[in-house]
């Protein structure tokens, strides 16, 4: 268990009121971390934090809502976390958005900017905010949740894929910069995970059969498939891994 012991870690997980983010927060708390639940909706954040505290004891989680599109709100998220829980030693950048579905020729400038701002720039801001304390402590872990959309072309989610590919390069750059301070940063690239976001894919029998057939493990991913990897990277088990993009897709991209 020492390889996965997260006691003493203070973690921020963005987009953690549901889906993959919630699973990550729950598993981090299960392994001893104190977790900040953050998304846009205060009530949703509070409900998740309460559920975690009921399971793991008071203080295991706190709710601090923030909109990732606002640098001011993200700075408040970081400042409040430090004030309420102490120095931040674990950051999971999970929140993202995709307001456009269709070919590149149809995306508006506003939509393009929003995707890049929420999926890339917001991650850059948060890392800038927490990295100095991690470097000073000579200890820190950052995980950016990307997507296999950043590894392949698409006629419908191309801009989203561009933002996710950029996340992978952001991680490589920062691994070089932060590594000498014993701060590790990695990227996860999930395939189709069974969440509300992908419900249209896994609830449709024809689409489901087609996708499961092309995937070597013959199934969609579960939220814990991603959460488990975050736990691994956050503890001693992942202490020699940095700058990597770890694909969690059941073999879809090689199938």
Name some characteristics of this structure.
7 strands; single chain; 255 residues; 8 helices; seven-stranded parallel beta sheet; Rossmann fold
Report what the structure shows.
By secondary structure, the protein is an alpha/beta fold. The protein has one domain (2-245): Rossmann fold, CATH 3.40.50. It has eight helices and seven strands. It has helices spanning 19-30, 42-56, 71-85, 109-137, 158-178, 199-203, 205-214, 223-234, and strands at 10-14, 34-38, 61-63, 90-93, 140-145, 183-190, 245-248. The protein has a seven-stranded parallel β-sheet, with helices on both faces. Helix 3 runs parallel beside helix 4 and helix 4 runs parallel beside helix 5. It is globular, with a radius of gyration of 18 Å. The two termini are 33 Å apart. The mean pLDDT is 96.
How many strand elements?
7
Major sheet characteristics = 7 strands, parallel
Order of helices and strands: EHEHEHEHEHEHHHE
Helix content: 40-55%
How would the global form be characterised? globular
Topology:
Blueprint: E1 10-14, H1 19-30, E2 34-38, H2 42-56, E3 61-63, H3 71-85, E4 90-93, H4 109-137, E5 140-145, H5 158-178, E6 183-190, H6 199-203, H7 205-214, H8 223-234, E7 245-248
Parallel strand pairs: 1-2, 1-4, 2-3, 4-5, 5-6, 6-7
